[in-house]
Every structure is written in structure tokens, then in C-alpha cells.
Specification:
heterodimer; A: 367 residues; mainly alpha; ABC transporter involved in vitamin B12 uptake, BtuC; 14 helices; 0% strand; B: 308 residues; two-stranded antiparallel ribbon; 2% strand; disordered N terminus
Chain lengths: 367, 308
């Protein structure tokens, strides 16, 4: 089809200025997800109109709840922090062609490990405790997803299924520990681990109510970008994603690449768990598994697995999450409204994959 | 607690009875996924279909008073989800695994959204057949109370195996799954065959979900399914795309899932959550043992993305 177009354009005198094809491709990969997002909002509007809710007032409230004031901006940013990290858990293995969807599990074990590291260190200087928590969370999350990579490479186990199974295993482990060995006897209604201590909490970015976890996320996203696009190792990873056979032929250590990238990915989600514990909850309990891992999958796909694009997308979806409460209170919509919207967005984004290379607007003559 | 006449014998009996009860959703989802995967596509969205089936079946049974109508509606909703999956996957350059993930999240979200009003009310549940009338032991009688939907599933497995091997439908389905090129060359529309296979798979997935809410555990809430759908998808790989092996594998997984509640019934509550994770751990172990990095799994449809 493309070839026909090219022939037709050669036959006809060139009217358009030729634009750098790389620029066109970049514009395409921004415009198509945005169009998918708009289509998803439209479908969502029809859906809630069927539930006898005025879509325009819902859109208005969503904007207000997400980005309408400094207060709601802060709320959105707080939610974006773990989303950036869990999205990286899907985006990094995606460079190797792996579909890992177990960020929720790595987040949970990361949070658990952070608490386990903090409890015996009571009385140590807060910075030491925080570093220990971050190291423990990243190590646990990294090991969790590295296991997925190892099963894939050494045993040929499908990584999508194994990573999701490990989510359920991680949540069972969480419930077991906070209701058993790690339970704080004082937590009656909601079984929890003992607190990590107020002094050991990560503070807020000065002048805001947003915790430092957001900065962790931003730094991680930039580092991931540099790693993937500015280092030889990142190039090697992307070669594996392009074609495993080629990668093997040029002598790349495919197994080591898979293990390392999966471990890094899991470490990101594990850090998200540490941030949730050390900046929000102060302890481990069932609230750790509220779905940041699942939303992170959507963030990664919407950002086309580009670490830098993940940041604005995470803020956007953090905003949608933040507006959920307002929709619930003002319009009497169920709390699952946000999940429905996320699902519609996800479907629209995947369906829009079919549009790449087919829109004449983005089809430069050399493309 | 162990003073009752049966004592520790209660554990294997409860596991046996539980295996039959717990395995039914696994059985239906895995048979459905088996059909879909035989056509060369994988539908990870059956987890969402299961939850949607549970919700819509329960709501229908509550509103109409007929649990069987609930099963039917759950199946139809499942077929609708299958249609959506097949339609999006039919677009060029769309990855079926990713679409499955999206539909999993969408199905769960939509079920929670629409199911909010049905968490409290009690719907009529599916009837069961009492095979334990001859026994005096209450736990044995409880174990031998078999739901009719389970029997339907048991009959469906050999029927499906026969249909795969001996009908025109089965032959076309397997050909599309093994080589889309060959099917196209013979004039079959690959997307249409896969559409029907995914819809049928979704129907069975929805029916499996309705069992959760209409028989065991027998109510609708947001923690009803946690991973049965995805476990069943993995189970199909373990069962080598053979419906009869799906049946045995489902019983095995049902038994693993019944272990936690069975131990709890005799007073062992420590590690309850860990025992509840048994089916997932078992699935993972089985996948590790039966997969191989070098050779393609025998019996696998050639077009299936998951085995490449």
C-alpha cells in the first residue's frame, strides 16, 4: 500500500516540502496516542451518559480534580510518582521484546522488604534507614522480576503469564506476613506491620505537599532513557528486542541482557513499593496493592515504552486517578469509574497501533 | 476441632470435594481458551471475562430469579468480550497479548462499576446433585454434592476433543491455528474463524465466571476472582491444547485451591494465605517443568505468539 503511494507521488510533481522523516515519525507517535486518548474520552462520555450522568460535568470535574488547582496538581503528582516507576517495570523489558505485567508484585515485595529493612534499624540515623529501605526494596523487586526473566531465558516460560502469577503470589505473601509474622498487635481492624517510625519517613519537596518519591521517579526515567539510548548496553538490549537471532549472531550475551534489564525493571517497581511505604503509608498492609502496578502497564503502553514519555503520561493518569474521589462524591459514580476509563483508554491505544504508517499526513515521501 | 468423627480424614475428603467445586471455573475457562488458542490466538482477557461473567450472571439471577438464565447471560457477555478481542486483534499490527491485558483490566473495572448494586443482595444459586445420599458422614455428603454445571463441563471436554479431531469445524480451526497461510490458500477467512473461536472461548469463560458467583463461593463481591482466569490460560499450555488434559489439569488445580479452606476446616489457620496461593505456585512450577527453551512444545498451534 505504501509502495503504491510512493509511486503515485513520484508520478505527480512534488508539491509538499520534504520534512525530516524522523521528525514525522516522532510527530506521529505523539499524535496517534493523543487521538486514541480523545477517542477513549468520547467513548467514556457515551458510557457514563448511558448511566444518566452528564459527560460534560464529569469531564469538568475530572479536570478540576486532576489539574484544576495547585492542591489537585499535588494530588496528581503524588499518584504519578509510583506510576512512573511501575511503568518502567513494563517499559524496560519491552525493549527486549518482553511483555512483563508483574509490576504490582514487585511493588508489593519491594514495600515488604523496605519495612523489613527498617524495623531492625530503629534508632539509626534516618538517612541510613532510608538508604537501607531503598536498597532492600530495589533488591527484592529486582529479584522478583529477574526471576521472570530467568524463567523466560532458561526455561522458555512465557514472561507475561509468570509475571502475573507472581503478582498473586506476592499479594498472598503480603497478607500472610502482615496477618502473621510481621503483624503489629495494635493493628486490629486492618492488619498491618509495625510502623517504620515517623523520623524515617521520606519528607516533602520543600514548598509542596508532594513527597520526594516524585523526584526518584523523574531521575529513574531520565536514567532509563540515557541507559537505553546513550549506552552500548542499551543499544544491545534494543538489538535483542529487534531480533534475537541477529543479537546472537553478533555475539550479544542475550541471557545476561535479559536478566539485567529485568532486574533493573523490577528494582524500579520495588522502589515504588519503598516510596509508598516510606512516604505515604508508613507501614506495610493490604493498601500496598491498590493497583499502581496495573496502571503502570497502561502508562508504559500509552508512552510507547519510551522512558521520557512515561513522565507526562504518568502525571496524566495520576490525575485521572486523583479525580476519582471527586467523581464519586459529586456525581455518585462508583470508585471503579477510573478503572473503566483506564480500560477504555488501553483498548483505544492498542487499536490505534493499526494507524501507524497509514495516515497520509505523516507519510513523508522518503518515509 | 479435630474431635469430630472424621478428624484429619476431613482434609483429603474436603480437598476431593473442593477439587470438584473449585475446578469448575478452571475447567470452563481452560476449555474456552483451548478453542481460542487452537485458532492461533491467545486471549489473556479471559480473566476480565470471568469477572464480568460472575457479575452479569449474578445480577441476572437476582433480577429474574433464574440462575440458569444468569449462566446464559454470563456466557453471552463473555462472547461479546471475545468479539471485542477478536475485532481489535483483527486490525493490522495489533498484538493479541497486549489486547488481552487491556481487556483483563477493562473487564474487571467494568464489572466492579456495574456490579456495585449487587454486592449486598442474595441471588438464587445453581442447583446441585446429591451423590452422597448413602453416606452418614456429613463431610462426605458435602464433598459429593456435585454442581450440575461441573457435569456439563465434564461432558464438554471429550465432546470438544472429538470435535477437534472429527469435524470439519475442528479441522478448519486447527488449520487456521497451525498455518494461517495454508488456510488462506484454501479460501478460508482467517479472521472470521478466529472471531468465532474467540467468541466461543469467551462464552465458556463467562459461564465459568457465573459459577463463581452462582455456586461457589456463591456471592458477588470484588474479591471473587483473583487470577483463576490467568491460571486457566497457563493451564492450557500445560494441558498441551488437549481438552481432556484440560479436565484433569483443572481437577488438579481445583484440589490445590481447595487445600487452604480444607486445612482451615480442621483448624489449621496458620499460613492460610500461603495455602491460598497454592494454585499460582503450582501453575508456575508446572510451567517451569513443562516448558523448554530449545524445542517448541509438542501439540502447540504453530501460529500462537506465546510459544515463539
Amino acid at each position: 500500500m505504501r509502495d503504491n503511494g510512493r509511486i503515485a507521488e513520484i508520478a505527480r510533481p512534488p508539491l509538499r516540502l520534504s520534512i525530516d522523516p524522523r521528525l514525522l515519525a516522532a510527530a506521529e507517535s505523539v499524535a496517534i496516542p493523543l487521538a486514541a486518548l480523545a477517542a477513549a474520552l468520547l467513548v467514556f462520555g457515551v458510557f457514563i451518559a448511558l448511566c444518566r450522568v452528564n459527560p460534560l460535568s464529569a469531564y469538568g470535574l475530572m479536570y478540576k480534580g486532576a489539574f484544576g488547582s495547585w492542591f489537585s496538581w499535588q494530588n496528581s503528582l503524588i499518584r504519578a510518582a509510583p506510576l512512573v516507576l511501575t511503568a518502567l517495570c513494563t517499559a524496560l523489558p519491552a525493549q527486549l521484546g518482553l511483555v512483563v505485567i508483574g509490576g504490582e508484585g514487585a511493588l508489593v515485595v519491594g514495600g515488604l522488604a523496605a519495612v523489613a529493612a527498617a524495623l531492625p534499624l530503629q534508632g539509626v540515623a534516618p538517612l541510613g534507614v532510608q538508604l537501607a529501605m531503598a536498597a532492600a526494596g530495589m533488591a527484592a523487586g529486582g529479584a522478583w522480576i529477574a526471576l521472570v526473566g530467568a524463567l523466560r531465558h532458561y526455561r522458555g516460560v512465557n514472561e507475561t503469564i509468570s509475571s502475573l502469577l507472581l503478582v498473586y503470589i506476592a499479594i498472598a505473601l503480603l497478607n500472610h506476613l502482615v496477618e502473621g509474622p510481621m503483624r503489629d498487635p495494635a493493628s486490629l481492624n486492618k492488619p498491618s506491620s509495625p510502623g517504620i517510625g515517623d523520623a524515617n519517613m521520606i519528607g516533602m519537596i520543600p514548598g509542596t505537599e508532594v513527597h520526594w518519591g516524585l523526584v526518584f521517579g523523574l531521575v529513574a526515567a531520565v536514567l532509563a532513557y540515557v541507559f537505553l539510548y546513550r549506552t552500548t548496553f542499551g543499544l544491545a538490549a534494543r538489538v535483542v528486542g529487534g531480533n534475537v537471532r541477529t543479537a546472537k549472531m553478533v555475539g550479544l550475551p542475550v541471557g545476561r541482557l535479559i536478566l539485567l534489564v529485568c532486574a533493573l525493571a523490577g528494582a524500579m517497581a520495588g522502589l515504588a513499593g519503598m516510596v509508598e511505604v516510606a512516604a505515604v503509608q508508613g507501614r506495610a498492609n493490604a493498601t500496598l496493592a491498590v493497583g499502581y502496578g496495573y496502571t503502570g502497564i497502561l502508562v508504559s503502553f500509552l508512552a510507547r515504552h519510551n522512558p521520557l514519555a512515561i513522565v507526562p503520561v504518568a502525571i496524566l493518569l495520576g490525575g485521572i486517578g486523583a479525580s476519582g474521589g471527586l467523581l464519586q462524591r459529586r456525581l455518585d459514580l462508583p470508585d471503579a469509574t477510573v478503572l473503566v476509563l483506564q480500560g477504555i483508554i488501553f483498548i483505544a491505544v492498542l487499536a490505534s497501533e493499526a494507524l501507524y504508517g497509514r495516515l497520509p499526513l505523516f507519510r513523508g515521501r522518503t518515509a | 476441632m479435630v474431635d469430630s468423627a472424621i478428624g484429619w480424614w476431613g482434609v483429603p475428603i474436603a480437598v476431593f470435594g473442593g477439587a470438584i467445586r473449585v475446578s469448575t471455573p478452571f475447567l470452563f475457562v481452560s476449555l474456552g481458551e483451548c478453542i481460542t488458542e487452537r485458532s492461533g490466538r491467545i486471549n489473556l482477557g479471559l480473566e476480565g471475562t470471568l469477572v464480568m461473567g460472575a457479575m452479569s450472571g449474578y445480577a441476572t439471577a437476582y433480577l429474574t430469579g433464574s440462575p440458569w438464565l444468569g449462566v446464559l447471560v454470563a456466557g453471552l457477555i463473555g462472547a461479546l468480550f471475545g468479539m471485542l478481542h477478536a475485532f481489535i486483534c483483527g486490525l493490522p499490527r495489533v498484538n493479541d497479548i497486549a489486547v488481552g491485558i487491556a481487556l483483563m483490566l477493562f473487564g474487571v473495572g467494568l464489572a466492579f462499576f456495574l456490579g456495585k448494586p449487587f454486592i449486598q443482595p442474595q441471588a438464587p444459586i445453581l442447583p446441585s446433585i446429591d451423590f452422597g445420599w448413602w453416606s452418614d458422614s456429613p463431610s462426605l455428603r458435602a464433598a459429593l454434592k456435585v454442581n450440575s454445571l461441573f457435569l456439563v463441563g465434564v461432558a464438554l471436554a471429550p465432546a470438544l476433543l472429538w470435535a477437534f479431531n472429527h469435524t470439519r469445524w475442528g479441522l478448519v480451526l486447527r488449520m487456521v491455528g497451525d498455518s494461517a497461510e495454508a488456510a488462506r490458500a484454501l479460501g478460508y477467512t482467517v479472521n472470521a474463524v478466529r472471531m468465532r473461536a474467540t467468541m466461543l472461548g469467551g462464552f465458556l469463560g463467562g459461564v465459568g465466571g457465573s459459577f463463581l458467583s452462582l455456586y461457589y463461593p456463591g456471592s458477588w463481591n470484588e474479591r471473587l476472582s483473583s487470577g483463576q482466569g490467568i491460571t486457566a490460560v497457563a493451564l492450557v499450555i500445560f494441558a498441551r491444547w488437549n481438552p481432556m488434559l484440560c479436565l484433569w489439569a483443572s481437577l488438579l488445580f481445583g484440589g490445590a485451591g481447595a487445600l487452604g479452606p480444607a486445612l482451615q476446616s480442621v483448624g489449621v489457620t496458620a499460613g492460610y494465605h500461603l495455602f491460598n496461593a497454592a494454585p499460582y505456585i503450582l501453575t508456575l512450577l508446572i510451567l517451569v517443568i513443562t516448558s523448554s527453551p530449545r524445542r517448541i512444545i509438542s501439540g502447540a498451534p504453530g501460529e500462537l505468539a506465546i510459544i515463539r
